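Ticket reopened. Same input as before:
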Amino acid sequence: MIQAPRGTRDFPPDEMAYRRWAEGIMRRNAELFGYGEVSTPTFESLELFTLKSGPGIIDEIYAFKDKGGRDLALRPELTAPVMRMVVNSMRSAPKPIKLFYLGNCFRYDRPQSGRYREFFQFGVEVVGADTPAADAEIIALAIKNIKDLGLEDFRVKVGHIGAIRGALNVIEELPKEKHTEILQALDKERYEEVEEILVKYCGENDASVKVKVLEHVISITDIDELEKQDATTADHLKEVLKHLSHYGFEQYCTIDMSVVRGLDYYTGMVFEIEAPALGAEKQICGGGAYSLIKLLGGGDIPSTGFAIGFDRVLLALEKEGKRPGIGRKGLYILRAGSVPYEDMVGLAARLRLSGIPVDFPLSDRSLSKGMKYASSLKYPYVAIMGEEEWEGGKITLRDMATGEQETLSVEELIDRFV
Amino acid sequence: MIQAPRGTRDFPPDEMAYRRWAEGIMRRNAELFGYGEVSTPTFESLELFTLKSGPGIIDEIYAFKDKGGRDLALRPELTAPVMRMVVNSMRSAPKPIKLFYLGNCFRYDRPQSGRYREFFQFGVEVVGADTPAADAEIIALAIKNIKDLGLEDFRVKVGHIGAIRGALNVIEELPKEKHTEILQALDKERYEEVEEILVKYCGENDASVKVKVLEHVISITDIDELEKQDATTADHLKEVLKHLSHYGFEQYCTIDMSVVRGLDYYTGMVFEIEAPALGAEKQICGGGAYSLIKLLGGGDIPSTGFAIGFDRVLLALEKEGKRPGIGRKGLYILRAGSVPYEDMVGLAARLRLSGIPVDFPLSDRSLSKGMKYASSLKYPYVAIMGEEEWEGGKITLRDMATGEQETLSVEELIDRFV
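Engineering reply: fixed in the latest deploy. New output:
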C-alpha cells in the first residue's frame, strides 16, 4: 500500500476544518492591519535560496533539476520568494507595501514532533518601512494572531541586532565578513566558536575579554542596561513598546538581546515568540527588520516581517488543550420507506439552493442506517420525512444533541436554518 | 534578476483577493452539498501516479529523487492522492465518504494561455456511491460553482462509458486489455488508430464495420437513440437528469456519448463542462464514476467525482468580462501635523481591536502624500484627525468615491464600520 512520503501529512476533514479556522483568524487579522495577501510558486530557482542563505542550504532543502536542466528547489521559506516577487513586479508600488501569505514550505529535515518535511507558514512583510511603528505593528499582529487562536502561555522576546553589531564594529581587527559567522555562533550560544574566530584575528588574550563583552551584550534583558550599552537601540525599542501598549500587548514582551537570529540580512529589531508547552521546539514565530531586496537586485529598501510556524502554533494549542471542536453544520435528510426517493432529492436541492448545508443518502438506505450515518458524521440535526407528515408537506426535525423533535413545514425549516 | 520559474505565477494582492473570492464560493458550495475538505502532500511517491496513469506520465510530470533516493513526484492531479489517503486512513469511515479539495498541481507542460506548470484544481470525490443520485449531485455541484462565479456561457456534456464498453465487449476477438487503447484513441478522435487495432485482431473487412459501430455509439447525443443502443445506460442517465431538474440544472446538460475520458478507471457516467470563450482549451471541468481504490490496495469501492480547472474557470470569467472588482475594505487614517503621531497609533489600535480594517502611515508623512497613498491603494474611506476636531475627540471621515466628508466621534466611527 502506497503511503504519504515520510515527513508529510494527509489532513482529513476534521483536521482541515481546524486548520481553516486558524487560517481564517490569521487572514482576518492581517486584513485588519491593512495587509494584502500574496502567493508565489511552490518551487523557485535554487539560486534564490542560496543567494539568501548561502550554499549550505542545499543540504537542507528539496533541490532538483527540471526536464530543461534548470536548478529548482521547493521553497524552504517564503520571505525570499515574496521579496523576489516585489522586485520583479511591485517595484513601483507605493511604499510601504504590506503583504501577507499563508503557504507550505519544504525542508529535508529529520521528521519529529512539530517538524515536518512539508510544513506551513503564515507571515507578513512590510516593504519600505522599519520604523518603530512598523516594528510594533508586526509584533502586534503576531501577538493578536496567537491570542485570538486561544494560546495562553507564550512569551515575546524583543531584541535588536544593532547592539551586538555595534559591539562587533568596535573590534577593528575583525573583518566585517566574519560578523555573520559570529552572529550565527552567538545565536546558537556556541561561545567557544566565537572565541576561536576572535583568537584568529585579535590574538589570545584579547579574545576572551571580547567574548565576555559580546556575552554581556546578548545577556541584556533590561531597557536601562541597554540604554548604557546603546542609547539609539534602546530608544527604538522603547518606542516599539510604547506603540504596543495601545494594543495592551506590551505585557507579553520582554527585552532580550539574546535574540540574534543568525542570518546576515537582519538589520534592526528582531523578535521571537515562544510557547513553553512545546518544550525544546518552542519557537512559534520569528521576525524582525531586514534588508533582502538589495541582494535580489532591487534598491536598498528597509523591510520588516515575521513568520509564524503554523503547525507549531496548532500543536501548542493542542498541548494546552485549546483546540476547538469545529462541528459540522446543517442537517441530514432521511425519509420513511414509502416517501418517494425523488421527494428527498427535491427537498435537498431546495434547501441547498437556499444556502443550507444538507446531505441525504445517495442510495436507498433504511431509516435506522441513515440515523447511524448522520450521527457518526456528527450532523447536529436530522430532518425526517415521515409518511403522514410529508403528505401534509411537513418534516420532523430532530436535534441530535438533545433528541428533541419538532414538526415543521419546509418554509419553517428554511427560515430556521438560513 | 531572478524570475519566477517558467510556467509559474506570482499572485499579487488584487489577484489573490479574486482567487480567494472564487475559492470561497466553491468551498461554501461543497459544504452546502455535505462535502468535507481534505488536503494531501504536495509531493507523493512517483509510483502512485504511474500506477494510476501508466509510466508514460513520467514524461509529463516533475519527478525527482529525494536525498534518501526515494522516487517522488509533484502531484499532477489530486484524485490519486485523495484516494491514497482514503485507503491509508479512512477505510473504516462510514460510506459514502464525501470529500472536496482545492489544491495546486504540477505538469511539465509547454506553458500557454490557461496552461501553467503549477495550476490549481477544485475537486470532489464521493467514495462508496455511483448511483444516479451521486452522479447527479456532483454534476449539480460543478454547475452551481460555475454559475455562482458568474460564468454565463458554458455547456455540460453528460456521457456514460457503459455504452461504448458494451460495444467493445461485443467484439469477442478483441482482448480486454486493448479496450483502454481504443478508448484513448476514441477520446482523441483518432479513428485510424482504432481501425489499426481492430484490423490486427479481427481482420481487414470486419474492422471497418466495427469502427463504424463504435463511431456510431460515440456519436449518440439523444437519449432515445441511446435507449436503442443500451437501455440500462439510458435509464441511468435519465435518472441523473431527473435529479438535476430539482436544481433547474438539466437545461445546461446534453447527452453526449463522445465523452469518453480516455482513462481506464472510468466505469460509468462521465461528464465534461466546456466554456466556449476559451477556444481550443475550452474544457473547464471533467469527471465521472470511477474505480481507483482497488488499484491502490483497497476494496472494489465505486466512486464518482470531478475536478474543475480553477485557473481556466477564472480565465473564462475574465474572457466574459465577469471578473468582479474586489475592493479593499476599511479605512486609512491620517493626521494633521500637530496631532501627535502616537494618537494616530492609538486610534488605529482601537479600531483594529474593534474589528475594523485600518491602516495609517508607518512613518511621518504629509497629509497630501498620505491621501495619495490611500487613494492608490483604493481605500474606500480616509479618516482625518484634524487638529481642532481631534482636540474635541472627533475625526473627519472622507468617502473617497464621492468626496463627501462628515465629522464623527470615535464611537460613531466604530459603530459605522463594525
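The first helix of chain A runs from residue 13 to 32. The first strand of chain A starts at residue 36 and ends at 37. Please confirm and we'll close it.
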